[in-house]
Design a protein that fits this description.
- It is globular, with a radius of gyration of 26 Å.
- The protein contains 2 helices and 25 strands.
- The protein is mainly β.
- The N and C termini lie far apart (about 60 Å).
- The mean pLDDT is about 85.
- It is about 0% helix and about 60% strand.
- The chain has a domain of about 240 residues.
- The longest helix is centred in the C-terminal third of the chain and has 5 residues.
Length: about 425
């Protein structure tokens, strides 16, 4: 054992200590084509010019991420311009991760212009604007679990642009809402390859939203309006390794909205669909719907195969990177990340208490006969249509020019009838 008594001592010169100061660096700058739904993807129903749900068109997304040297602070900002060149989106997110209780400040704005049907050959244009601010807290219970809370203030504004004398007097429609979302998140997954994971993930959430309005001129403050919106949701995913390189992935997702205002969920299609299609034969149920969003994936059908204020969805996929079985050394990113997919989707969306009730809007059609100003004859037709739909098929995944491209070929199963196959091309990773 060494004699530590003879070890020389070094006196610390406090004048030479350099304290840590904030030093930011650019972590990532990207420009790419993108059509994802930002910030939960709640679209204002009043601002939508067409019936049904329309995913945003592919746009040019430019964003940059700046981090502190110790990654205690992170800032991300970006903008996206649609290829239709009828608007723009801007966002900024600041994360404070210095302490165990993480904080997030987020700002988002979206402005779009649409062409409405002309009146007496005079064109009409409508402008919609979304202004969103969020403050979030995240408290980790351990490495895998966390509790999260997010407060939201949102304004939706629809303005009829002045194109003739009559449109000058049309007032803008503005709605303000405040909300609080609580979440429990569990995630012990490990990413083994691109679009491949091991483990389980789950999110349970509840949210309340309330409309409010600013007081008139000469008065200060704001007042809450009648009505509210409540949201409950679950998203659970499990990834099981199979045959060394392959993954069996399963997902159970469901959400319901209730209150005097609701969210209209459109079932069908896939996330980030490049060439979306809508089913116009199924009408939306009656009700005070404030927002609309997509419930995906359900392949084999267009968007709006089912709709309502609630949905339940089950997805199962077998992901097989076939070229990794043929060679242990793959220098090509295309071959290394190429995957063949087999999938099965089943789900339903409904309005009211349950999807099997007799007066389900899915199975009820109302016809009316008569002239305006006179009595109408109403005819209600009831028929059977199974509320549960399913889809199955094959697909491929590949990394092309820096984009992860998904191609699916699916057959739909509706009311025990197999539908014509449908092709899907989309961007981004699977669930």
């Amino acid at each position: 054992m060494a004699d530590e008594s003879n070890t020389p001592l070094h006196r610390i010169n406090t004048a030479r200590i350099t304290p840590y100061r904030l030093q930011f660096r650019t972590d990532e700058v990207t420009t790419q084509m993108d059509n994802t739904l930002l910030f939960e993807g709640l679209d204002n129903l009043a601002g939508n010019p067409e019936p049904g749900f329309s995913p945003p068109p592919a746009g040019i997304l430019m964003k940059a991420t700046v981090k502190d040297l110790l990654e205690d602070y992170q800032m991300e900002g970006g903008m996206r311009f649609p290829t239709s060149f009828n608007g723009a989106e801007y966002f900024f997110v600041f994360d404070n991760r210095k302490k165990r209780l993480d904080q997030r400040f987020a700002f988002y704005t979206k402005n779009l212009r649409y062409n409405d049907p002309p009146v007496f050959n005079v064109p009409r244009r409508r402008e919609t604007n979304i202004l969103l601010g969020q403050y979030g807290l995240r408290y980790p219970l351990d490495v895998f679990q966390s509790l999260r809370a997010t407060a939201t203030v949102r304004r939706d504004r629809v303005l009829q642009m002045a194109t003739d004398q009559t449109t000058l007097n049309i007032p803008a429609v503005s709605q303000q809402r405040i909300g609080l979302r609580l979440e429990y998140v569990f995630d012990n997954t490990v990413e083994t390859a691109l679009n491949m994971r091991n483990g389980a993930r789950m999110r349970v959430m509840g949210e309340m939203m309330k409309k409010f309005s600013f007081k008139e001129e000469g008065q200060k403050g704001f007042s809450f309006q009648d009505g509210y919106m409540g949201i409950l949701g679950l998203d659970a995913r499990y990834y099981q390794p199979v045959l060394k390189h392959s993954i069996l992935a399963a997902r159970l997702a469901g959400m319901t909205s209730f209150g005097t205002e609701k969210i209209l969920y459109y079932l069908g299609g896939v996330d980030n669909w490049l060439f979306p299609e809508n089913n116009e034969t199924i009408d939306a149920p009656q009700g005070n719907f404030a927002f609309q969003t997509l419930a995906a994936n359900l392949r084999g059908f267009p968007i709006n195969v089912r709709n309502g204020n609630s949905y339940l969805l089950l997805n199962a996929e077998m992901r097989v990177p076939i070229f990794r079985y043929l060679s242990k050394r793959l220098n090509s990113g295309f071959l290394r990340n190429f995957q063949v997919i087999g999938f099965f989707d089943v789900g339903t969306a409904w309005a009211g208490s349950d999807p099997f009730r007799e007066d389900n809007p899915l199975n009820t059609t109302v016809f009316k006969e008569g002239e305006e100003g006179k009595e109408f004859i109403f005819i209600t037709l009831n028929y059977f249509r199974d509320p549960i739909v399913a889809g199955y098929g094959l697909g491929a995944r590949a990394l092309l020019f820096g984009y992860f491209v998904r191609v699916d070929y699916a057959w739909g199963l509706e009311t025990r009838q197999i539908q014509d196959p449908k092709l899907y091309i989309s961007l981004g990773f699977d669930f």
